[in-house]
Amino acid sequence: MKIHNDSEKNLRFCSDLAKQRKANTKQSFANYYIFFSKLSTKLRVDIISSLNSKEKSVSDLVKELKMEQSKLSHALKELRDCNIVYFEPRGKERVYFLNKTIKPILKLIDLHSSKCCNCNECNKCSQGMEK
């Protein structure tokens, strides 16, 4: 009888573990959706691309990207909310930089997305992106 009870306990444990893993997988994919949705606008991608080379102040980004500060600030907030970028106050300005863990992710995305479109002229890859 003891073997039977232990088997039932193990079966229940495995079943519970499988349910938990399934729930965790669903949560992970929900998190992936949120993360990648932060990359769904051209402005946010341009910000990330600019910060990939070096940290920059908001005024530097406004000049470089030729964007209104209010739109840029909103896009930066979206990226901050997902821990893609951080900032440090320096005097009266905020200087933004990429989260160190994002750079390897960007390299992987670049590797996989390069097969999408090999030319830089047709804009095929940026079609459908929100402005």
* CATH architecture descriptor text of the largest domain: Orthogonal Bundle
Rg over alpha carbons: 22 Å
Relative strand content? 5-15%
Mean pLDDT: 79
Helix content: 55-70%
How many helices?
5
Query: Structural class of the secondary structure composition?
Result: mainly alpha
Q: Record the strand order, biggest sheet.
A: 1-3-2
Number of strands: 3
- Main sheet attributes: strand count, strand direction, barrel closure: 3 strands, antiparallel
The gross shape turns out to be elongated
Superfamily (CATH H level) name of the largest domain: Winged helix-like DNA-binding domain superfamily/Winged helix DNA-binding domain
C-alpha end-to-end distance: 67 Å
Which spans have pLDDT < 50 for at least 5 consecutive residues? 1-5
Tally of discrete structural domains: 2
- Could you state the order of secondary-structure elements as H and E? HHEHHEEH
- Within the CATH hierarchy, at the fold level, what is the topology of the largest domain? Arc Repressor Mutant, subunit A
CATH class group of the largest domain: Mainly Alpha
Structure commentary:
This protein has 131 residues and is mainly alpha-helical. It has helices spanning 2-37, 42-53, 58-65, 69-81, 102-113, and strands at residues 56-57, 85-90, 93-98. It has two domains: 1-37; 41-113, Winged helix-like DNA-binding domain superfamily/Winged helix DNA-binding domain (Arc Repressor Mutant, subunit A). Residues 1-5 have low confidence and may be disordered. It has five helices and three strands. It has a three-stranded antiparallel sheet with strand order 1-3-2.
